[in-house]
């Protein structure tokens, strides 16, 4: 699902590359020299971001001024496995790029995975079409009840989805996600000040992303009778200690029984 603007065009903009505009007009550098400086400047920027973020994908994401919590989930999987253990045996992922996330989870030994894509599937490869055809990934509006029985999954993980819901729908959606989870619910949400939906995406998401603070979420959990899972929080913090700093807020909630 390609929602990312043309980053290469942005990198190729000479006005944004250091040193390119510093020559005196009378010096008239050769076109090849100017192009070379643009390329070097771009590589320096990417290299700096790559070094500080741990990967080229993160570097491009930072250049765009946004963070994908679904991409963050990929980085958090090793810590989640350590924190939840056997609860990772039957996982439901809810969020965009569900096909990709489910495919990653299915590669984990002893893990069964399903997915719910809450938005339109603009572009699908053969693997994604197969997952949808077999019912492993479903396209469904999460503002309505999920087509699963209570406790159908050991763990439910949601990313890049709740930020686009108003409190009116969150009051129904999060308890519903907790209903189908037997052992726990993990919610990944963006930090305030991070990315917003682009204008072209509003028709898909329905509204701009509303990125809330951790204190807002905690109050909401209490009001919705959702309890934080203190045991899972401690295990996850221990498992991720010194390994990486999460780029998204990660909340661990108890299931509804």
UniProtKB/TrEMBL annotation:
GO terms (BP aspect): pectin metabolic process
Sequence intervals crossing the membrane: 32-50
Keywords tagged on the record: Membrane, Transmembrane, Transmembrane helix
Molecular functions per Gene Ontology: methyltransferase activity
Gene3D superfamilies: Vaccinia Virus protein VP39 (3.40.50.150)
Source organism (scientific name): Nicotiana tabacum
Protein name: Uncharacterized protein At3g49720
Record carries keyword Transmembrane: yes
SUPFAM superfamilies referenced in this protein's UniProt entry, alphabetically: S-adenosyl-L-methionine-dependent methyltransferases (SSF53335)
Record-linked InterPro entries: CGR2/3, SAM-dependent_MTases_sf
Gene name per UniProt: LOC107787210
Top-level division of the source organism's lineage: Eukaryota
Lineage, opening ranks: Eukaryota, Viridiplantae, Streptophyta, Embryophyta, Tracheophyta
Keyword field contains Transmembrane: yes
């Amino acid at each position: 699902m390609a929602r990312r603007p043309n980053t290469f065009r942005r990198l190729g903009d000479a006005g944004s590359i250091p040193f390119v505009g510093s020559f005196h007009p009378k010096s008239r550098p050769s076109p090849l020299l100017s192009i070379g400086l643009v390329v070097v400047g771009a590589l320096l920027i990417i290299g700096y971001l790559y070094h500080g973020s741990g990967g080229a994908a993160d570097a491009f994401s930072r250049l765009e001024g946004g963070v994908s919590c679904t991409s963050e989930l990929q980085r958090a999987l090793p810590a989640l496995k350590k924190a939840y253990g056997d609860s990772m045996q039957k996982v439901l992922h809810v969020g965009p790029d569900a096909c990709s996330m489910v495919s990653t989870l299915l590669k984990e030994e002893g893990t069964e995975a399903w997915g719910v894509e809450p938005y339109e599937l603009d572009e699908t490869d053969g693997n994604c079409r197969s997952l949808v055809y077999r019912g492993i990934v479903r396209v469904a509006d999460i503002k309505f009840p999920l087509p699963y029985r209570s406790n159908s999954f050991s763990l439910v993980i949601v990313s890049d989805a709740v930020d686009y819901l108003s409190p009116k729908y969150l009051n129904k959606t999060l308890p519903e996600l907790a209903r189908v989870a037997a052992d726990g619910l993990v919610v990944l949400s963006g930090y305030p000040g991070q990315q917003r939906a682009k204008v072209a995406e509003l028709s898909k998401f329905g509204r701009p992303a509303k990125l809330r603070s951790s204190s807002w979420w905690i109050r909401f959990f209490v009001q919705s009778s959702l309890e934080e899972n203190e045991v899972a929080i401690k295990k996850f913090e221990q498992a991720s200690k010194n390994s990486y700093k999460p780029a998204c807020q990660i909340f661990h909630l108890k299931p509804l029984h």
